[in-house]
Write a structure and sequence with these properties.
With 305 residues, the protein is an alpha/beta fold. It contains 10 helices and 12 strands.
């Protein structure tokens, strides 16, 4: 049975952003948002299960009773962003609502993305994940898309790099940006050489919007463009170090997960900025992100030479 309460989801106190935006934190893993416009209550992602998503719906129930329609956005098909979809679509949907996403998001879900990981999570934590079904979005678009909510416009901007289906959201009337996983603290995830220029272009596109407030899915406490600028600087530094490494010691073999990319690049994880607030588990997690970024940039730079 789906519950409307979940001890691991909390409503985050508003520290200055527009009062129409509600912010929800799941553990230290991910932040989600509900935005109330004249016509719609828009959920930006669905957390990690139908029960965690139900907490958001319960928090906006009064706004829905006032005649607004519930609309769900999937920013991309990573587990911590769409596993609550079953609350809104499918045979057991408790709160039927359109789920809007990029076409590639639906393709990733239907292609079985995360199925093996879901089985592992259901075995390790059935209380949280037993109810999860991999439910795809129901309405898709290519490129970009706008949702007109009366007083607020939700501009869904294709920002690939982290994943091919990734979209960020900008509300121009209040100059508020949700970059999702296109920018995060201390560093975002990029997994392949071909994604490096896509991610960097997405950084620049987000910065060019000149938002006054940035609400991140993975940057606890940050609401300025500083995280985006830090991510831009980090990748600029990666390219500089990778170029120096390739020019100094050309290597012919492809890099794999066992390659000591931190040594090759001369960039140990300890030198990455903004690590002081991470706990031990998060440090391990983001060290993996750092190594993926080093490997991706090295391969990218090598391909350019």
């Amino acid at each position: 049975m789906i519950s409307s309460t979940h001890s691991d989801v909390r409503l985050v106190p508003n520290t200055g952003w527009d009062e129409r935006i509600l912010t929800f934190q799941y553990k230290r893993i991910v932040t989600n948002f509900a935005v109330i416009s004249e016509r719609y209550v828009v959920l930006i992602d669905t957390l990690v299960s139908p029960s965690t998503a139900a907490v958001m719906v319960e928090a906006v129930r009064d706004r829905l009773r006032e005649g607004r329609q519930l609309v769900v956005i999937n920013t991309h098909a990573d587990w911590d962003h769409y596993w609550g979809n079953g609350l809104f679509a499918g045979a057991d949907a408790r709160y039927p609502a359109p789920i809007i996403a990029h076409r590639l998001c639906r393709e990733r879900v239907l292609g079985g993305a995360w199925q093996e990981y879901l089985v592992e999570m259901q075995q390790s934590d059935p209380a949280t994940y037993a109810e999860v079904r991999l439910v795809p979005p129901t309405i898709t678009f290519d490129g970009s898309c706008s949702i007109f909510g009366g007083d607020l416009t939700f501009e869904l901007i294709h920002t690939p790099g982290h994943t091919p289906d990734h979209v960020s959201i900008f509300i121009p009337e209040i100059r508020t940006l949700f970059p999702v996983d296109a920018a995060e603290d201390p560093i975002p995830f990029v997994f392949h050489a071909e994604d490096v220029p896509l991610m960097r272009a997405s950084f620049e596109r987000l910065a060019a919007l000149e938002p006054e407030r940035v609400l991140y899915h993975h940057a606890l406490g940050s609401t300025s463009t500083d995280v985006i600028q830090h991510n831009i600087a980090y990748f600029n530094d990666l390219e500089r170090r990778a170029t120096a490494a390739v020019q100094a010691t050309p290597f012919a073999q492809a890099l794999d997960e066992n390659s000591d990319v931190e040594a090759i690049m001369g960039y140990p994880f300890a030198e990455v900025a903004h690590l002081e607030t991470l706990d031990a588990e998060e440090r391990t997690f983001y060290q993996g992100a750092h190594r993926d970024a080093l490997r991706s940039m090295l391969e990218y730079v090598r391909q350019q030479h």
